[in-house]
Specification:
globular
């Protein structure tokens, strides 16, 4: 779920904002780990730029 949603988001937006991530990741858990998920998506976007 979350990984495929993140891949799809990054295919649509190569440099997503926090708001883009919140909108695109409908299955984000609000248990406190979503900040780490958001950070990981930002890191994945940076890694795509470097590749």
């Amino acid at each position: 779920g979350q990984i495929l949603s993140a891949v799809s988001l990054l295919q649509r937006k190569s440099n997503p904002s926090d708001q883009d991530i919140d909108r695109g990741m409908l299955n984000l858990c609000r248990c406190g780990t979503y900040t780490r998920v958001r950070k990981a998506i930002h890191r994945a976007a940076e890694m795509q730029k470097e590749a």
